[in-house]
Specification:
The chain starts with a strand and ends with a helix. It has 11 helices and 10 strands. The chain has an 8-stranded parallel sheet with strand order 3-4-5-6-7-8-9-10. It has helices spanning about 30-40, 55-65, 85-95, 120-135, 150-160, 175-185, 205-215, 220-225, 240-245, 255-265, 280-285, and strands spanning about 5, 15, 20, 45, 70-75, 100-105, 140-145, 165-170, 190-195, 230-235. The chain binds NADP nicotinamide-adenine-dinucleotide phosphate. NADP nicotinamide-adenine-dinucleotide phosphate (NAP) binds near residues 145, 198, 199, 234 and 239. NADP nicotinamide-adenine-dinucleotide phosphate (NAP) binds next to α9.
Length: about 290
Amino acid sequence: MGKEEFTLSNGIKIPAAAFGTYKAADGKSAEVIGMAIRAGYRYFDTASFYGTEEYLAQAIEESGIPRNSFFITSKLWKEEMGYENAKAAFQRSLERLKTDYLDMYLIHWPLPDPAYSNWKELDAETWRALEELYRAGKVRAIGLSNFLPHHVDNILANCEVPPTVDQIEYHPGYSQEAAVRYCRDKGILVQAWSPLGRTRVLQDPLILSMAEKYGVTPAKICLAFAVQRGVQPLPKASSPERMKENLDLFSFELEQEDIWRLATMPQTGWSGEHPDRVRVRYEDMK
Ligand SMILES: NC(=O)c1ccc[n+]([C@@H]2O[C@H](COP(=O)([O-])OP(=O)(O)OC[C@H]3O[C@@H](n4cnc5c(N)ncnc54)[C@H](OP(=O)(O)O)[C@@H]3O)[C@@H](O)[C@H]2O)c1
């Protein structure tokens, strides 16, 4: 198991501990992100959709820590797909982030909406823009988010630069085994969004029993379930205590038997989001 960092297929090393910024600036300030920097995070996951790019820029500026000590990922949103659109979206992200390069740039979703029939061409065109940005040295790595194997196949069939990561929902109860195995076979690092199931899985009896067995919190069980399967978790937290807890990814190891239990537990905690389906409201699933 690689520790403290992951290596992407293009040779770039990235910090293993990363901080997700979705809803991390609900108070409309850079405060939470500043707290995460002080807790020790250097990898930040943002997106044009999150509205946190400006807050991240502000927090980095206020930290006094040089830009090149940070690893910044952003993503283009559904309405920003297409060759010209993607390039313009990238430029807007750079401006909001007050930087002249990104460490990673992702296509946020493979389809603008589930009924969009021409997605293969749209994805290929969008990817061509990302390849150009990569070759021009404006971004150090390019990748995907919420792409399932059939979507990634289309990129691989049409690309010159292969994607380095695929960021998908991943947590006990929704660990997308087929997509994870597919990505591993293709040398694509899986990143886990909602690695704690947005707290929906933290009270599950299996996870609670493992937390007791290992003497750790339920959140730590979820994070170990990611890193021990070669998946990079991107947790979001609001307090320094939780931030520090989530930074510590390698202090204990789950036994293989427990990993299988977590990987095969009945589906629970799914967000209701799926690229090929209309969103299901979590409240309606219960
Ligand atoms: N690519 C995509 O489509 C996509 C979609 C969704 C998310 N993401 C990325 O993934 C990141 C994380 O996902 P997420 O925010 O949905 O879910 P998450 O990280 O699974 O869960 C966040 C929730 O867990 C709580 N929490 C954090 N650490 C905890 C701990 N140690 N113990 C107990 N509770 C804890 C947080 O509470 P407090 O905040 O109150 O501390 C928050 O309510 C996002 O911020 C975003 O960067 C990407």
